[in-house]
Amino acid sequence: MTTRLVLGCGSFGYSLYEDLGGYPGELLVVTDDESRVEALREESIPATLGDCADPETVAAAVAEDDRPVESVIVAGTDAAVNRRATTAAREVYPDAMVLAYVPIEADEEMSDAIERLADRVVRPEAAVTERIIEPTRQDGLRIRQLRRVLREVEGTLAVVMHDNPDPDAIASAVALSAIAETAGCDAEAIYYGDITHQENLALVNLLEFDLVNLDPDDDLSGYGGFALVDHSRPGVNDQLPPDTNVDIVIDHHPPREPVEARFVDLRSDVGATSTLLVDYLRRLGVRPSTAVATGLLYGIRVDTKNFSREVVADDFEAAAYLLPYVDDATLERVESPSVSVDIIETIGRAIRNRRVEGPVLTSCVGRLRSRDALAQAADRLLDMEGISTTLVYGIQEGTIYASARTRGADLDVGETLREAFSQIGEAGGHADMAGAQIPLGLLGSVEEDSDEELREIIEDVINDRFFETLRARPHWSATELFDDGVEGLGLPVGTGTSDDE
């Protein structure tokens, strides 16, 4: 663990301690002011009474623990003492970053001497201005609020991903857990459902992420607080009780309803929740581990489709910040895992069962082993000639799951799915990628039918609602788009049977 050493304890230095204490590492203070030493010790800040300008005293402050000193802050009120303290800091810790305060009464010679010795200096007028302005900035307020909420959590914080989490949710949960630890808050990254996508499994296994997989009936009373990442409401796309009191919500998806939590950060103007977590790491001065950095970069790349979808400058800046800490070899292995037989079979069924109207393709794949296969099938079918929108759906454990994609079309597929299915289930997402979950029970006793009959009933309901919504959208010329059928595009309408289990 590294050490931040503060020499002197004037009003400037004392005002820094609360902020410095929130950063990782040990904070130590050396001052000749006995009352300051007692006050700091009452606040659990290690303080040594002594001459902060004496090299031997400065060296002895951390000598017992033999910890590396990362930075030294010279923060006394006397210009001459600060000059000698800066000299001592530079002598004892030549590799540390030295920040020195230049009191207002310092003459030009003294000021220049301190500036030559220190890496950076702070002058009273600049310090006062920054101290007044910084807390009023949105980013500064957000960071302070997050840190305060983390410190107030009593017990372990459950950082909850959405069900069957993707790389963005996984990396965000792990990163927030790491940030919580720096604030003295124990945290666990948890999820419901399964991680079955081969790349997601590779991400967790190769980076050795410690995730907790819960069942719906697991007891949650052992957690002292809850944070949601990459989604914003308990009980919606996770299996928390809907009335769970949430402490923190961090998400980049636009919410359908008001979000309630002690700390809420919803920024739909970035491409990934991982981008928001990188912003916290940078502003809090928390250096990401190799595993966390690699996961965050992969989360950004996946959610922005390698920086080609809904990407903004913040996403590029976050990726650039992470690059020095990323394990390129592991990232390459994550991106090139073997594909399971289940995935290939699902994609094959999606191709055989496709129905095409104009540039829109839908496909019911029947019963699912892996929900992740739907997203992969929707992506793959989007590559077919003449297709700009896909909707692939299937059944698992009494629920219809759907995944939609679109490109190069004047269509918000997230809003389309919400309009089509929100009355019978949950739906939403981005303009170019979205999903839906519909309880099968809403369609009656169809589960008692054969697989073939079940698939036909589901196809009728899903396709009718989806295409009806498309035709109603004002920017789509429904008559021209669909009346010509598919012959004009040279694409057949799939009528093949399903290989459902």
UniProtKB/TrEMBL annotation:
Residues 5-124 form the RCK N-terminal domain. Residues 158-300 form the DDH domain. Residues 359-462 form the DHHA1 domain. Gene3D superfamilies: inorganic pyrophosphatase (n-terminal core) (3.90.1640.10), NAD(P)-binding Rossmann-like Domain (3.40.50.720). SUPFAM superfamilies: DHH phosphoesterases, NAD(P)-binding Rossmann-fold domains. This is DHH family phosphoesterase. It comes from Halomarina halobia. The lineage of its organism: Archaea, Methanobacteriati, Methanobacteriota, Stenosarchaea group, Halobacteria.
